[in-house]
# Entry
Amino acid sequence: MQQHNNSSSSAAAVPVANQVSSAVLGLCFLFGMPGNIMVVVVILRNFKKDHFTLCLILNLSVSDILCLLPLPAFMHALLNGWTLGTALCKVLSFLIYISLYTGLLTITLMSIQRYLVVLYPHHWAKLGRRGERVLLFSLWVLASVLSSAAVVTNSVVEEGGKLKCWRISMSDGRRAAVVLCETLLGFVVPFSILVTSYCCLHKKVNQTAFFSSQRLTRLVTLIVVTFFVLWIPVHILNLMDIFAILIRSAKPAIYEQLSGLRRSSEEVVKSLTFINSSVNPFLYAFASQSLRQNLEWPEKNPGTQISAV
# Structure
C-alpha cells in the first residue's frame, strides 16, 4: 500500500506541461519515424542522381529521422527526470540541434534551388553534380557549426528536485546573446530567404505552368505556413526572454512575470517544433503527386524543372 501511494504521488508530481510535452513528442515519434523512413525507401528505390530536388527531400527526411530518434529519451526525462548522464545529454542535444538546423537549411536551399532552376536554369546547370554535392556537404558542416553551442550550453541541471537535460544557467548578457543568435540564424534569416524566394518566383512566373497547378500552389503555401506556425512560438519566447533581460533592472516585477511565463510554457512550446519533422514527409512527398513524376523524369528535363517539388 505504501509503495502504491508513493508511485501515485510520484506520478501526480509530474507537471501537466511535462505530460503534454511528452505526449506531443510521442505522437511525433509515432507518426514521423515511419513517414520519413518510407520517404527514404521510396526515393532510394527510384533514385535519380541528376535530380537535386530529390536529394534535398532525401536529405530532409534523413535529418528528420535523426531529429526524432532521441525523442524517447527526452519523453522519459520529462516524466521521470534525466538519468542518462551528462555526456549523453550533450550528444543527444547536439544531434537534435544539428538535425533541426539541417532540416531548416535544407528547406531554405530548396527554395533557392527552386527559384534558380525555374528562372535561371543555365546558372544552376553550371553548378553540376559536384557542386551540388559540395552544397549538401557544406549544409551539414554549417549545421554542425551552428549546433556546436548546444554542446557548451546544454548539460544536466536540477530543477524542481529532478534532473533534466537543459540549458545551463548563465549570465543575462550571455543568455541574451545565445537566444538572439538562435532567433536570427534559426528563424529570421532562413524564413526571410524562404519567403523572398517563393514570393519573387510567384511574381515572375505566375502565368506559367509553375503556379497554374492549384495542388502545387497549396503545397508551397503549406511549406511556408507550417514552418512559420510551428517555429514562431519558440522564437516569440526567445524574444520575450531578451526583452525581460533588457528591463530586468528597471522593471523587476515584469521580469519575474515574463520569466515565469517562459519557464512554464517552454517545454510545451519547444515540443511543437518536432511536429515539423513529423509532417515534412506529407508536405514534401505524399501530399504532392509531382514527386511521382520527379521519380520518373530527370530534373534537367525543362518540363520537370517547373514542376519540381
Remarks:
- Strands lie at 154-159, 162-167.
- Residues 1-12, 300-309 have pLDDT under 50 and may be disordered.
- The chain is about 80% helix and 5% strand.
- The two ends are 60 Å apart (CA to CA).
